[in-house]
Amino acid sequence: MTSVRLIGIGKRYPNGFEAVQNLDLEVQSGEFIALVGPSGCGKSTTLRMIAGLEDISSGELLIDDERANEKAPKDRGVAMVFQSYALYPHMSVRENIAFALKLQKMPQVEIDQRVEAVAKKLQIFPLLDRKPKEMSGGQRQRVAMARAIARQPKIFLFDEPLSNLDAQLRAEMRVEITKLQNELKTTSFYVTHDQVEAMTLADRVVLLKSGVVQQIGAPLELHDQPANRFVATFIGSPTMNMLRTELKLDGLQVCGVHLSLSTKRLEHIQAQGIKSGMPIDLGIRPHQMTLVALDEQSKLDEQSEQAQEQTATLANGIKVSLEAIEPLGSETICYCRPIVTADDQESSEQRLVVKLDADRKVERGQIYLLSFKEEHIHLFNADEEGVRLS
Ligand SMILES: Nc1ncnc2c1ncn2[C@@H]1O[C@H](COP(=O)(O)OP(=O)(O)OP(=O)(O)O)[C@@H](O)[C@H]1O
Ligand SMILES: [Mg+2]
Asked: Average pLDDT, stretch 193-222?
């Protein structure tokens, strides 16, 4: 059982570029941490510093409460799995998996036992005598995993291990990694571009941007309570819609429509220094919006209050033109453009994505009222940082 602490870790490459800044992270024994963020944000650099493949420029790395900054990679008890597999091409699968164990001078009988046990676990036992070039990408990736597991490391480090596989194999391996993790309970760091992987595998997600941590938390925490606009739009697919609004005395003006806010919410926003007339960014996820046909809306108006309540807290909804439809089978993605007055240039350039149930019939080119509930909106400061307001 191994805990890991990163205290103010930074990396400045010899050319002066700061790839990671002041990273604080406390990882419990057995925890599975996903590192995510756009290309170049410092994910691999962080992993390589933990592995000892890259010097740490500032801060301290503790493995089991012991300073590890100066320890050689082989003394850190880590095993790394790469996207490129990095198998030795001239060795058989058996030799590849056994290689590190041989270096440790482990008795041959024990090596054979370990190699065979792990090969069975990862369903590559029949392939033990093949060379890497005689296998598919998915099989090679299993060998790379098996080689890491056979070493029984204190820490697993994965750098996009599944990104060379097709979607179906990735999904299969995801399930297997979850099973392995439940069984082995080895402290793990997993770098990925794929947010589904991060959300499904990780106990906690670390989201980086330009070498700086944006948020650390359980997957649903990042999804439901994003710390800033960047996290809000990075996590979730399709991406959260972001609308520029203006704060009014009792609500928000959004695409020419008034959205009333609860008193509690208004007070909370005002307490953070946002005054009437100032801009606020409103985030709303595509599956939390709905499109109401114009004639349906007038019928609803005639019906009970209850039906009205179901549509929205927007007085009338935002009038939109449905520009494109993607029927995906299990759901339908709709791309909409707000219809606003000619002087509201900013709103007319907005695009809004709505996710509807597949059985909902909509028609391209038609006008709809787009509505959503106040409880589903996220509000962010409209400045560059875009910190969450409420
Ligand atoms: N040896 C180096 N010298 C200078 N800069 C480097 C070096 N290695 C990486 N960088 C820079 O550091 C930043 C972080 O690189 P890193 O490889 O950690 O990104 P990443 O998050 O893993 O990206 P990707 O998702 O593309 O793999 C990048 O801007 C990269 O160009
Ligand atoms: Mg990388």
From this structure: 96
Tens digit of each residue's pLDDT (9 = 90 or more) over 51-96: 999 999 999 999 999 999 999 999 999 999 988 888 999 999 999 9
pLDDT at 156 over 60: yes
Residue 296 is predicted with a pLDDT of 67
DSSP tag of 40: T
The residue whose CA has the least distance to atom 29 of ligand 1 is 40
Last-in-domain residue among 209, 234, 259: 234
Mean pLDDT of 285-306: 74
Most ligand 1 atoms within 8 A of CB, residue of 11, 15, 18, 43 to mutate: 43
Whether residue 316 contacts residue 324, with contact meaning beta carbons closer than 8 Å, is answered with no
Whose CA is closest to atom 10 on ligand 1? 19
Please tell me whether residues 328 and 199 are part of one structural domain.
no
CB of 187 within 6 A of ligand 1: the answer is no
Distance CA 353, CA 225 (A): 20
Q: In the chain, which residue ranges form alpha helices assigned H by DSSP?
A: 43-51, 93-103, 108-121, 137-150, 167-184, 195-201, 219-224, 229-234, 263-270, 294-302, 305-311, 345-348
**Cα(36) to centroid(ligand 2), Å:** 10
Report the CATH number that the domain containing residue 127 is assigned in CATH. 3.40.50.300
The per-residue pLDDT for 311 is: 44
The token pair at 123 is 């369903």
- Domain encompassing residue 158: 4-234
21 close to ligand 1 (CB < 6 Angstrom): no
Peptide bond preceding 38: is omega within 30 degrees of 0, i.e. cis?
Answer: no
